[in-house]
Amino acid sequence: MVERWHLMAESPRVLWGRVLTDGRELPPSRIEIGDGRVTRIEAASRPADADIVVDAGWIAPGLIDLQVNGAAGADLTAADDPRAALRRVAQALAQHGVTAFCPTIVSSPLALILDRIGVYAAQRIGGGAESLGAHVEGPFLDPQHRGVHEPHVLRDATRDEIQRWLETGRPAIVTLAPERPGALDAIRQLRAASVVVSLGHSGADKDQARDGLDAGATMATHLFNAMPPLHHRGPGLVGALLASQARLGVIADGIHFDPLMLDLVVRSAGVARVILVSDALAAAAAGPGQFVLGEQTVISDGRTVRRTDGTLAGSALLLDGCLRNARAWLPQLSPAEIVRMATQTPAEALGLQRKGRVAVGADADLVILDPDWQVRQTLVGGTLVPSAASVEVPA
Known about the structure:
Elements: E1 2-4, E2 14-21, E3 24-34, E4 37-43, E5 52-53, E6 58-61, E7 63-68, E8 70-71, E9 74-75, H1 82-94, E10 98-106, H2 110-119, E11 130-131, E12 135-137, H3 159-168, E13 173-176, H4 183-192, E14 196-199, H5 206-215, E15 219-220, H6 236-242, E16 247-251, H7 259-269, E17 274-277, E18 289-293, E19 296-300, E20 304-307, E21 312-315, H8 319-329, H9 335-340, H10 344-349, E22 366-369, E23 375-380, E24 383-384, E25 392-394
Parallel strand pairs: 2-5, 7-10, 10-11, 10-12, 12-13, 13-14, 14-15, 15-16, 16-17
Antiparallel strand pairs: 1-25, 2-3, 3-4, 6-22, 8-9, 18-19, 19-20, 20-21, 22-23, 23-24
Helix pairs in contact: 2-3, 3-4, 5-6
């Protein structure tokens, strides 16, 4: 049977259902919301005053995506109107359960990076996911592992350029290759400014990778992709990252990452270190077609996105799809452990105390998942966002 739950207000005050948080499942609970935060949560039978009732499925923290290049036809690097592109992407993400994200800027000239860093600063976006600040992916990358990043804009890191970034608007994350000239000093400079540094697009050997980690890097950008493969006599960047305490971004789209590899990485690092990311492009939530990524043209068949020369680009899948993949690929994990990799773990990577959990004092960023892991409704700061999904929850 199917029970319809009724939306009594744009900003519901009380929700009820099973809860996934902190890597565990709570029994059916009454959740109170006020002023955009969770004010009370307690195990309870179904209350008469609930605005949202989830008889089957779960109430979970909103998904957090730390690497989003675009969605719904909008590219965050190339857009002529970056503010409009940010709104469009944020609204598309919210319809897929993402309540916060890092707008990602691919390797670009300095002037464009400075412009985007300012526009994509941390902010609430009406009807959409919240921006957590820019993720600057490049331009301090290894040309031999650049992926689809344009070679002519890659350059060595300098203190002056990074200082200009910081004066314009502090990015949330910067991806760089630790073996490149100036990289270790850049890591220290960025960490001193509370910017998370992620290692990626790199040919670093294990010692160069460890130097980057010792300098302050704490993440990996799309592990295994755009870096040499793990080898038993040359563990390289992948081996150094797996053996560290760094958090590991993985693109669980079935294209960039084989299901078995995700299983191996999770068994090695645990759900407290693995972060599901989409690396979504403008093609995500837009169907097959031709799109842009920075200065380039990419082609999507609705599942895979490639440059015209066949080079694999980012993903056409948003984070809720990656979450469903992880659920199918990792049957040994509980629902709450799966959800942790797209909520609490990315929040902890950025040091966000009020996100990624359903707890008193946390932001009321919530997603309603049905038993098939489809997003039924999203709340950002306690407010329902427009959704194309039905409000019917299978019982």
